[in-house]
Q: What sequence folds into this?
């Protein structure tokens, strides 16, 4: 048996991942990434939450996104409490730079 230690929630293309978020854990953090085109370091801000359940299994992971639209949806859900009140179904729909995300409250 191979034991995989993962600290981050990884979304798979067009497959819903259901998470439960730790109460009050939404935050925006600064990060340095490598720009895909220029290969130069770039400062960005990302939305981050602590995940306590993934697909019905208890975990201690983080989920983060650089996607502004998804980050705005997570912030709104944080502000009104839905982010912590419900399980969140996240689906990543990759399409190059036009990537979309679906969110369902469960």
A:
């Amino acid at each position: 048996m191979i034991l995989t230690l993962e600290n981050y929630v990884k979304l798979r293309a067009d497959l819903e991942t259901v998470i439960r978020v730790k109460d009050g854990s939404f935050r925006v953090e600064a990060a340095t990434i490598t720009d895909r085109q220029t290969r130069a370091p770039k400062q960005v801000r990302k939305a981050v939450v602590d995940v306590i359940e993934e697909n019905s299994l208890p975990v201690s992971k983080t989920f983060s996104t650089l996607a502004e639209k998804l980050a705005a949806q997570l912030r709104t859900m944080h502000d009104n409490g839905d982010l912590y009140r419900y399980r969140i179904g996240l689906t990543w729909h990759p399409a190059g730079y036009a990537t979309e995300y679906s969110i369902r409250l469960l």
Observations:
- Residues 17-105 form one domain.
- The chain has one domain: 17-105.
- Helices lie at 68-80, 82-85.
